[in-house]
C-alpha cells in the first residue's frame, strides 16, 4: 500500500509525458522542427557547404563558357564560376540560346561533383577540365531552362 501511494505521488509530481507539437517530425523519442529550405537564388550560394541537395532557381545568370553540348560554366564578374550540367531531358520553355554572354534562368538541383576519373568517364571531358570541375566541389544539375 505504501508503494502504491509513493508511486501515485511520483506520477502526480512528474505529470504526463509531453505531447509533440503538431508541426514536429521525428522518430521515437525525438522531435525536430520541420525545416523547409527555399531555393538557392544566387551563384555564390551554390558553392556553400549546405548547398548539396538543395533546389536552385537562378534568374538571368550569365553563361561564361560552353564546354560541350550539356556542360557550361556560369557566373559573372568577379564571382567564382559554377559548373552546370544539363539533364539529357532538360525542359526548355523557350528556344534559349546557351552561348557565352547570354543570360538565362536555370532551375535544378545542386549536387556534389564526382571524382576526376568519374567526370572523365561519365561526362567525357578532358583530364584538365575534369580536374578543375572536380576541384569545384559542387555543380548544378539543370532540369529546366527559361529565357
Short summary:
This protein has 147 residues and is α+β, with helices and mostly antiparallel strands. The chain contains 3 helices and 7 strands; from the N terminus they run αββββββααβ. β4 and β5 (82-92) form a beta hairpin.
CATH superfamily of the largest domain: Nucleic acid-binding proteins
**What is the CATH third-level topology name of the largest domain?**
OB fold (Dihydrolipoamide Acetyltransferase, E2P)
**Main sheet: strands, sense, barrel:** 5 strands, mixed, barrel
Question: What do the pLDDT scores average to?
Answer: 82
CATH architecture of the largest domain: Beta Barrel
Element order: H for helix, E for strand? HEEEEEEHHE
Beta-strand fraction estimate? 25-35%
How large is the count of helical segments? 3
The residue ranges in which pLDDT falls below 50 over 5 or more consecutive positions are none
Structural class: alpha+beta
Q: How would you describe the oligomerization state of the chains in this entry?
A: single chain
CATH class of the largest domain: Mainly Beta
Instruction: Tell me the span between the first and last alpha carbons.
Output: 80 Å
Number of E-state strands: 7
> Helical residue percent?
10-25%
Amino acid at each position: 500500500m505504501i508503494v502504491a501511494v509513493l508511486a501515485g505521488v511520483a506520477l502526480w509530481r512528474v505529470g504526463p509525458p509531453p505531447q509533440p507539437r503538431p508541426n514536429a517530425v521525428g522518430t521515437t523519442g525525438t522531435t525536430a522542427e520541420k525545416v523547409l529550405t527555399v531555393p538557392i537564388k544566387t551563384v555564390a550560394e551554390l558553392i556553400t557547404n549546405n548547398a548539396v541537395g538543395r533546389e536552385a532557381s537562378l534568374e538571368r545568370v550569365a553563361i561564361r563558357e560552353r564546354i560541350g553540348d550539356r556542360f557550361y560554366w556560369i557566373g559573372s564578374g568577379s564571382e567564382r564560376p559554377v559548373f552546370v550540367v544539363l539533364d539529357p531531358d532538360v525542359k526548355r520553355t523557350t528556344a534559349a540560346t546557351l552561348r557565352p554572354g547570354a543570360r538565362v534562368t536555370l532551375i535544378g538541383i545542386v549536387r556534389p561533383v564526382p571524382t576526376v576519373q568519374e567526370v572523365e568517364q561519365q561526362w567525357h571531358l578532358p583530364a584538365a577540365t575534369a580536374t578543375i570541375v572536380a576541384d569545384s566541389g559542387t555543380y548544378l544539375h539543370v532540369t529546366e531552362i527559361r529565357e
